[in-house]
Amino acid sequence: MALKNKSLYAILGILNVSPGTGYDIKKYCDTVLSGFWNENFGHIYPTLKKMLIDELVEIVESETSEKKIQYQITPKGQMELEAWLMEDSEIQPMRSEFMLKLLFSSNQPKEHVIKMLEDYKQLHVKKLEKYLDMQHDLEQGIEEISEERSRFLKATLRRGVLSCEATIRWCEETIDSGL
Amino acid sequence: MALKNKSLYAILGILNVSPGTGYDIKKYCDTVLSGFWNENFGHIYPTLKKMLIDELVEIVESETSEKKIQYQITPKGQMELEAWLMEDSEIQPMRSEFMLKLLFSSNQPKEHVIKMLEDYKQLHVKKLEKYLDMQHDLEQGIEEISEERSRFLKATLRRGVLSCEATIRWCEETIDSGL
DNA sequence: TGAATTTTATATCAGAGTGATATAGTTGTC
DNA sequence: GACAACTATATCACTCTGATATAAAATTCA
Fold first, then answer.
1. Residue B136 and residue B130: Cα distance in Å, rounded?
2. Considering chain B, what is the average pLDDT of its residues?
């Protein structure tokens, strides 16, 4: 099987929640999915065009006809989404520039390495705060989300929290070790 | 600043440890760096060629002249590496296909979602075992690594362990919740 | 010894994904 | 009503991915 365009599935999943423009899709990624999914305009628009040709999405003929293009998922698109949801997930390779830099820093001055770790920790403290805020908002039921979807969103947020906490603990432990 | 080729820094860091071929670099990524760095031949070879032109690396004239090309870092390459090590790291966007799939699975049969989580947990149990083995090997001092480098390698392994443990705990917690 | 298999080694390609930049209408605000 | 901020689409060069092709060297084992 050739290389898969993963953005396609992200777009199907988002449009399956509610129809929207390419811009809306980007906003959804930058907010709801921000903890574990990144998407660029430079990939969203070409992918939407391809999906239109493949009839996975269709254009909603909007009343206020401007230059904005509203998309919605088609039955074919829903089948494609469903098939992907049923597929087994494989382990994905990752790239952490920070960890790479750290490993190659054994000859750097100790104080610089400690500074690196402290900055990295701070980044994750901020990220953790953001997750906790989002968790709080979700608990308050500010957004109009079904009980069902809310439970899944909470699970993803919970993972973000645990992951941040683990990273923060690792930073502290490593700083304390003095390396 | 234009988009940066991160592979270049990975290659500089690896060659700074010891000279080697493109193939050696790939092997190093797949073993030592496997927890946090992925590299492909399709990017290593063209990058090495570019680095040769920019005089960041040079070819070692080897005695056993086959078609294998041995590279070593140049003083200019070491300066480039040093400059990168001193740069602040920024937060990097990520993509977890598993988390994306999970979030969009609120209408899937519960047993399928539980299965997904159990498979994902199992993947991380295996990964954790691998990290613990590597940690053990490092503790035994099997490889010939300097005390200094060994401490940094241990720190990266420790992060892998903590991260896996957090993921496993999250899986268990989420499975138990029944969603 | 020699056949089969695995490992070492380089190279190339199409397509996925990134981030910057250009353009322009619409909305908010001071 | 000027200015800033937001909405919206599009394109570009470049990075990165994973598949595939090729072939020599080393290893297995019959």
1. 10
2. 94
